C-alpha cells in the first residue's frame, strides 16, 4: 500500500484524541426519515462503524479477529439516550471511550455529537464470542491494548 493510500485509510478510521476515538459520520438521505431526521436505529449503525474503526486503529480488523483467534463481538446490552435529532447532511462525530475491559467483554460509552453538542449517548456492553458459538476470552494482546484505552478517574 502506498503512502497516499495508507494516509487515506488512516483518515477514514478516525483518530484518537484525549483518550477517545473520534470518528466522523456524514448523514445521508438513507439515514433519515421523511422529515430529514436521522432514524433512531441508524445511531447504532454509526456507533458500530466507529467501534470497528477504533479496533482497526488498535491493530485488529473484524476479519482478522474472526480468522485468528476466531472471535467476534456481540452486543450484550445497549442503552441509548436521545437528546436532540441529527438532520440530513449533518457532519457528526462519534466519540468512543472504553470504560471497562473484562476477560471476555468490554464496555464503552459512545456519544454522537454535532459541533461539540451531544445528540445521543450510547452505553454498550460487548461480549467476545467464539465463531463456533459461546463466549470466549479476549486474547491477551487485544485485552492489553483495549485496557490502555480505559479512562481512569
From TrEMBL:
* One Pfam family of this chain: 4HBT
* Keywords assigned by UniProt, alphabetized: Hydrolase
Locate the Thioesterase domain: which residues?
A: 37-120
* CDD domains, A to Z: 4HBT
A single GO molecular function term of this UniProt record: fatty acyl-CoA hydrolase activity
Hydrolase among keywords: yes
Q: What Gene3D superfamilies does this protein map onto?
A: Hotdog Thioesterase
**Protein family per UniProt:** Belongs to the 4-hydroxybenzoyl-CoA thioesterase family.
Give the matching SUPFAM superfamilies: Thioesterase/thiol ester dehydrase-isomerase
- For the keyword Cell wall biogenesis/degradation, the answer is no
Name recorded for this polypeptide: 4-hydroxybenzoyl-CoA thioesterase
Amino acid at each position: 500500500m502506498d503512502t497516499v493510500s495508507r494516509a487515506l485509510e488512516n483518515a477514514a478510521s478516525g483518530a484518537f484524541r484525549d483518550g477517545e476515538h473520534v470518528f466522523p459520520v456524514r448523514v445521508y438521505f438513507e439515514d433519515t426519515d421523511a422529515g430529514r431526521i436521522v432514524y433512531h436505529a441508524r445511531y447504532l449503525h454509526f456507533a458500530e462503524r466507529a467501534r470497528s474503526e477504533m479496533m482497526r486503529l488498535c491493530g485488529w480488523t473484524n476479519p482478522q479477529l474472526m480468522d485468528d483467534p476466531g472471535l467476534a463481538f456481540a452486543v450484550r446490552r445497549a442503552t441509548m439516550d436521545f437528546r436532540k435529532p441529527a438532520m440530513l447532511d449533518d457532519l457528526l462525530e462519534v466519540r468512543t471511550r472504553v470504560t471497562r475491559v473484562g476477560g471476555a467483554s468490554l464496555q464503552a460509552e459512545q456519544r454522537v455529537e454535532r459541533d461539540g453538542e451531544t445528540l445521543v449517548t450510547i452505553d454498550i456492553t460487548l461480549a467476545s464470542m467464539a465463531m463456533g458459538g459461546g463466549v470466549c476470552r479476549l486474547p491477551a494482546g487485544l485485552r492489553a491494548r483495549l485496557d490502555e484505552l480505559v479512562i481512569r478517574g
